[in-house]
Design goal:
With 697 residues, the protein is an alpha+beta fold. The chain folds into three domains: 27-187, Aldehyde oxidase/xanthine dehydrogenase, molybdopterin binding domain (Aldehyde Oxidoreductase, domain 4, 2-Layer Sandwich), CATH 3.30.365.10; 194-265 and 324-399, Aldehyde oxidase/xanthine dehydrogenase, molybdopterin binding domain (Aldehyde Oxidoreductase, domain 4); 272-315 and 411-693, 2-Layer Sandwich (Aldehyde Oxidoreductase, domain 4), CATH 3.30.365. The chain is 29% helix and 23% strand. The chain is built from 19 helices and 26 strands. A seven-stranded mixed β-sheet has the order 9-10-7-17-14-15-16, with helices on both faces. A five-stranded mixed β-sheet has the order 12-20-19-18-13, sandwiched between helices. Helix 10 (344-355) links the parallel strand 15 and strand 16 (362-366). Helix 10 runs parallel beside helix 11 and helix 15 packs parallel to helix 19. The longest helix is centred in the N-terminal third of the chain and has 28 residues, at 95-122. It is globular.
Amino acid sequence: MLSLSLPSQSAEAEASDTGVFAPNAFIRIDGDGQIVLTMPYVEMGQGDYTAIPMLIAEELEVGLNQVRLEHAPPDEKLYGNPLIGGVQATGGSTAIPAAWEPMRRAGATARTLLVSAAAKRWNVDPKSCRAYGGEVLHAPTGRRLRYGELAADAATMPVPASVVLKRQGDFNLIGTPAKRLDTPAKVNGSAVYGIDARPPGVKIATLAQSPVFGGRVKSVDDAAAMAVKGVRQVVRLDDAVAVVADHMGAAKKGLAALAIEWDNGHHAKLDTHQIAGELEKATLNPGAVAQNIGDVEMAMAGAAAKIEAIYQVPFLAHATMEPMNCTVHVRPDGCEVWVGSQVLARAQAAAAKVTGLPLEKVVVHNHLIGGGFGRRLEIDGVARAAEIAKHVDGPVKVVWTREEDIQHDMYRPYWFDRISAGLDEKGMPVAWNHRFAGSSILARFLPPAFNNGLDPDSTEGAIDLVYALPNMRVEYLRVEPPGIPTAFWRSVGPSHNVFVTESFIDELAAAAKQDAVAYRGALLDKSPRARAVLELAAEKAGWGQPLPERVGRGVAVQFVFGTYLALVAEVEVSKDGAVRVRRVVGAVDCGVAVNPNIVQAQVEGAVVFGITAALYGEITLKDGRVEQANFDSYQMLRISEAPAIEVHIVQSSEPPGGMGEPGTSAIVPAVANAIFAATGKRLRKMPVDANALKQPA
């Protein structure tokens, strides 16, 4: 349990000459009764702009349609995420868990003050009054007052030190499949994403950055670019060149016409095999101990059998549908930024640093995000746009081409794992030893969270497993690849660790000649919630029922991001090795499902994202350059390839867990295990290698 305080600027509800009632940093009610929620998190398709208003509306006793949203300004004191070290950030599947208590308490506080104001006006006991539908009612006399009529009085009331939150059995909104508030605007085209921002007089720019990370511009001939109709100027930076034009078409033509000579720098010969080799070498040495249970060495020495394996996962790009973009207007006395960012205060700080302006002189407008997946937890795009804007008179929107977006992403780390287990005479694990090497994103993003050589994001999914393992040791080695920027990627550490652990537990079941579901179930006596989702997913998927030749089912179960999830994938492997995921069945226990529709949609989206990674996802380097450039070489799952997906939600009274990412980490091993069931071939390296799955002629 976390104790979280509500941010407020004073001990009393803020009053103003206009009678606006603002009991805390999240809620504002004016004289006409309009309820405004200042949203501390951002919407990037995950449903926060519906689920979080449900928390406020539930306790405030209003309908969801009575709440209007505003983006929060950059302010970590008021809007910092308590689950991410106080950083004003939307990520890590933390928005609902972080908002669960504070937002309900914000609504309950406002409700309590409104009821108190009405009781005072009527000179009655507040206990004889109740809130309902945006009004306060006095049942004995039938009197009622709308919230707007009470706003001015409520603003003068002292804020209570504590309030009573509703019990789950009394919820009217929470737990219901409410329609998403952001859907109409996205359907009719009125929704504004960062890329849609068009301040008056804006010019459009696109850019070319050094094709080798760490390289520099040696020379630029811009004569041909400046001859393109609509091109206004060429901006040269140390490691990039931008073309500023009237529109994107002219900017792209101008960029193509540039003659740029690059100094490739120290990483000109870097390739993926070199990086993998360094990671492999690192794992020959002990790492920082992330978890140690019992005596692994002694248990391994006495085991009846020993199984060991090496796993690898590649660099991955985010490839968001909305490419990186940012609009900036730099003036001598200030700077204005329009962007879709997961870290608004950091975006403000980045622009301030580049322009040399005080923080308070930088105004940032946040917008909807067309896909984040962790990419917009980074502020490199904002800094780059500000660098270019310093050379432009008026606002300039910098839009990265798809090629620039993929080849200058900040990537999910490459990971190399050594894992082994000792089995007893019945084939059950008595020892578990897991050592892996890769980059630490958290050490850069939030240094205080990196302690004793350990990164909790990198180790999640490898430690605190749902299984009862009597002897277990997990070691992590931080190895940063030269020149390759790494960043959070949807499901972060579990995207790698769950693939390894759930694939390996499947290997143990196969070695013991036991059913994969039954084997897992035998290890879940101390984790009833994990057992429940495993059994439910297996039942709904028809586990054990016969399948055609070269069709198999694979399973994975996990507890990450505070959520229990089991997935069963049904996969078909053709004779030429092509893999098609036909069906995915999931069971999820995420605690209280604030909006079941959104929980279902999050699993569906995460599953598609994860299947893309399993079948196609890989960023490779050759001669210091990223080889993938667009969706032809960095392939996405096509609509025609999407499986049927079923999601079954376990009813729970536990506090909510995160839902944005669990599906991505669970689906990859489920697919790999299904491929093994269909072909007998175990894949320990992603993405799927179709050549390895071809049926012999």
